[in-house]
Every structure is written in C-alpha cells, then in structure tokens.
Design brief:
It contains 8 helices and 14 strands. By secondary structure, the protein is α+β, with helices and mostly antiparallel strands. The strands form 4 sheets. Strands 5, 8, 9, 10, 11 and 14 form a 6-stranded antiparallel sheet that branches. Strands 6, 7, 12 and 13 form a 4-stranded antiparallel sheet that branches. Strands 1-2 form a two-stranded antiparallel ribbon. A hairpin with a 2-residue loop joins strand 12 and strand 13. Helix 2 runs parallel beside helix 5 and helix 3 runs antiparallel to helix 5. The two termini are about 30 Å apart.
C-alpha cells in the first residue's frame, strides 16, 4: 500500500494536535482541581455530582430557614423569660399592696406600679422579630398581635402559629393568643370570687381539690345571713340546696362541698355572697392586673375588697406565670429540636459535598503524573515530527 508524504504529514499533525489538546485539558484540570469540566468528560460522574450539588443547595436552604426559626424562638424564649420576671415583680407589688396598714394613697401608688408593669408586659407581647413581623403574631405575623382597649387587651392578629415551608416544622412565630390570653382561671379546676355588692370584710381563698372524682362543674353560691343572731351560710349548687345549709360561720374554717375545699376569712356581712364556678382557659395577665389595679385605686375599697383583690390577684398571677413557664419550656424544646436538625443538616451537607467531590474532584498526584507523561510524549512527538520534516534528498545523500 502506498502512503503519500502528505498523508504522513497530516497524520503527524493530527497526532500533535491531539496530544496538545490532551495536555491542555490536563493542565486545566490541575488548575481548577476538577476531573469533570463538562458533562462529556464523564456523563455518569457528572450526573452524580449534579444530584449531590442540588441536595447540598436544598440543605443550605433548609439551614437558612432553620437559622430564621432559631432566631425567632430565641427571641420568644427570652421575651417569655422577661415576662416571668415582670410578673414576679407584679406579684411582689401585689403582696405589698395587701398591707392592712396602707392608706388609700399608698394603695394607689402600688396600683401605679402595677400599671407600669402591665405596660411593659404589653410591650413584650407586641415585640417585633426584627424582620417586620411579631414574635407572638400567630398566623398574622405582620399585624400587631394585641390592642389595649377600654375593654382590656384584645387580640388583633390571627391565632395559630406560622411555620416555614420545609420538611421539618420550623416555627417563625408562636400563637400569642394561647400564651398571653388563655391561662386557666382560678386554681385550674374552679374559680372562687366575691360578689361585687359585698359590704363586709370577708374574702375567699383560691381553694383546693380534695376529691377529683366528686367535682361536678356546677356553679355554686355561698350566701351569708343572720340566722337567729348567728352569722351563718348556705351553699347552693346550680341554685339547688346542698347539705351545707344554715351552717354557723367560723372564720378560716374549711367549707367542703363536692370535692372542693375553700376558706372564707374575715367577717362577711349579712347578705354577702361568694361564688364558685368551673375554671375556663381564658385568663390573661392583663385582666388579672386590671382587676387588682381597679380595686387598689378605688379609695372606697374596704378591707374585704382589698384582701379579696390581693388574694385573687396572686392566684391569677400564679396561674399566668405557670402558663407562661410552660410556653417558655415549649420554646426551649423547639430550640433543642432545631439544634438537632442543625446537626443533622450539617452531616447531610458534609455527605453531599463528599459525594460531589468524589464524583468530580481530581486526584492531584495522578493528574500531575498524567500531565508529565503527556508533556513528555508531546515533546517527543514534536521533536520527531520536526526531524522528519527537515529530511530531503540531500540530507539522505549525506
């Protein structure tokens, strides 16, 4: 077979160009540290690297959501902690206001302190999250959660909880209405109160449950009256008489009925009434403070009304504090769960980076060796081609 000189030259040039291209690609790979610079280099490896990259980007997005949720829950937990401190301050102030030696002006001063603490509580309930929303905004995070009206603090946002749209629930707000306005009233089972028209110095305590199975959930009244010159009381259940009828009153003696035990102290007047009703989940800190403030500011409040306001206020504040402590614990649990998710996402991100690196990264030692071999081969081929190209009949004769 005859091979023309031109064909040999063309083959040699193609070989040189191929070697030069391979050497340039090896040099590019060493420069950027990637084995795959375009999908055609390794379609299967490129697909693996792409899937790992997408997984890593998804994890990075979840991490951004997690950071936003952690920020909100950290602020929420701190706000609830501050609320607990304010409520404790209000409790101490209320205890001081119960001093029987205080004048009406001194009680009004204590009421003003309670009003200031109430304002600080409301500011915490309406605290922003630094991103145009509110920590306790529920599902209406951009709407102020609570409004202070003549009827008391009213919810202004939509109840519930806003969560970021991820596979794992990451709250960005909490249900402020449940936290701030939904503690259980009374002692959690029933609520005792004095009638507003009472004129004596008697007051009733929060009471305790002695037999949970005997609790009826009925409405009870304890009516005091003069029975043959003896101050006595009768207990009614849903307006029906009970076994406690015309019982002589003894200050501080337990009144036990249907699994409940209460104490009336002081000296009730003829016609005074105390009520007992089932507890409901509608107690809020602002209402508890408002009732105490109104009584303490009223110069006409007698010792019985003051004692009742202080006792009921302490009971309600304790209920609200316990409720908020539970909410704070829930926020802390959420933070713990977010920390666990963060650790898991970091492990997943490391796995994704490892898979991507395994698919597309270059073995630098092998790459340097390959490049040197290609460079040596290219130089040898170039020198051979140069020597062959210089040959002529005169070189052959010599």
């Amino acid at each position: 077979m005859r091979v023309s000189t031109a064909n040999r030259y063309e083959t040699a040039v193609d070989n040189l160009q191929r070697r030069q291209r391979d050497m340039a690609e090896a040099q590019t790979a060493m420069t950027n540290g990637k084995r795959i610079n375009r999908p055609s280099d390794d379609p299967t490896g490129a697909a693996r690297a792409e899937r790992a990259y997408i997984s890593g980007e998804r994890i990075a997005s979840e991490q951004r959501s997690l950071a936003a949720s952690r920020h909100a829950m950290t602020l929420t937990e701190a706000a609830l902690g501050q609320a607990g401190e304010l409520l404790q301050g209000a409790r101490d102030t209320l205890v001081a206001a119960g001093n029987g030696s205080y004048s009406a002006a001194e009680r009004a001063s204590q009421a003003n302190q309670l009003a200031q603490l109430r304002s600080q509580l409301l500011a915490l309930a309406n605290q922003g999250n630094g991103a145009g929303g509110y920590l306790f905004g529920g599902q209406g995070a951009t709407t102020i959660p609570f409004l202070d009206t003549a009827a008391g603090v009213q919810p202004a946002a939509t109840g519930g909880q806003s969560e970021l749209s991820t596979a794992d629930a990451m709250p960005i707000t909490v249900d402020g209405q449940t936290i701030w306005l939904a503690a259980r009233s009374g002692n959690g089972v029933f609520v005792s109160a004095a009638a507003a028209a009472n004129t004596g110095s008697g007051w009733i305590d929060a009471g305790t449950v002695t037999d949970p199975a005997a609790i009826t959930g009925n409405d009870y009244t304890i009516d005091f009256f003069d029975h043959n010159g003896v101050l006595s009381y009768t207990v009614s259940s849903n307006a029906a008489p009970t076994a406690l009828e015309n019982v002589p009153y003894q200050a501080g003696a337990a009144i036990t009925v249907d699994g409940m035990s209460l104490h009336v102290k002081g000296l009730p007047a003829d016609g005074d009434r105390f009520t007992i009703g089932p507890a409901t989940p509608d107690l809020d800190a602002f209402e508890a403070l408002d009732r105490a403030i109104a009584t303490l500011k009223d110069p006409a409040s007698n010792p019985g009304r003051v004692a009742q306001a202080v006792n009921s206020g302490l009971r309600d504040l304790d209920a609200v504090m316990g409720h908020m402590q539970a909410a704070r614990a829930a926020a802390g649990s959420t933070l713990t769960r977010l920390d666990t998710l963060d650790a898991r996402n970091q492990d997943r991100a490391l796995w994704a980076r490892s898979v991507q690196a395994d698919a597309e990264d270059l073995d630098m030692v092998q790459a340097v060796s390959t490049f040197q071999n290609q460079q040596t081969g290219y130089q040898a081929a170039l020198q051979s081609y140069a020597m062959v190209q210089r040959l002529s009949l005169f070189d052959y004769v010599k």
